[in-house]
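To: structure subgroup
Subject: Chain for Friday's discussion

All,

I'm putting the inputs and outputs inline so they're searchable in the archive.
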Amino acid sequence: MNFNRNSTVYITRISPTSASSAQKDYKTFLSDLRWDNTPHNHIQVSDFLGFIVDDDETKSKKVKIHKVIRVGSVEQRHETWNSNTPYNNNNNGKHSPGHRKPIYLSRELRSFPWTWWKQTVQYAPKCAWWMPQGTMKSRNPLRISAPEGLKYAVDEKEYRETYFGYEEVPEEENHPVSGEMKRN
């Protein structure tokens, strides 16, 4: 199944600060496609995870979408990941992430401009700098009509071709998820 209007999607912000633990974990992720689940291990196989990252070329933010292909066991957590102390120091020392199961993801399937995503799902419409804290379940922007001023093709195939230049790839060419897309 491809990312579409019926998909369950989570998002997480990757801090642009090179010294941040999220940035270090993201660089590790790019090599082994493994990421931490939510505090209650809600992310499941066939869900999607979008990383909100800074795009150096365009000086903007993008949501890079990956599909969850497997959920691992706690023992499979990456050795460099934080296990004993909380990711966020603002939670009074509670909620260490050592119980979180790793999720294994596909390579990037597609990306969306963060400003479009945020505006479409109407996250903090009066706060331009708003970002999620940690990993959160997101409203799916493909399920929502675009706000005034944003062109949105209701037909998903037309939308992919118009805005992202994607085409469907025959199943045998996929890595590692069936129905994955590639750029023209």
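Points worth raising on Friday:
Residues 21-32 form the longest helix (12 residues).
Helices lie at 21-32, 114-121, 156-163.

D.
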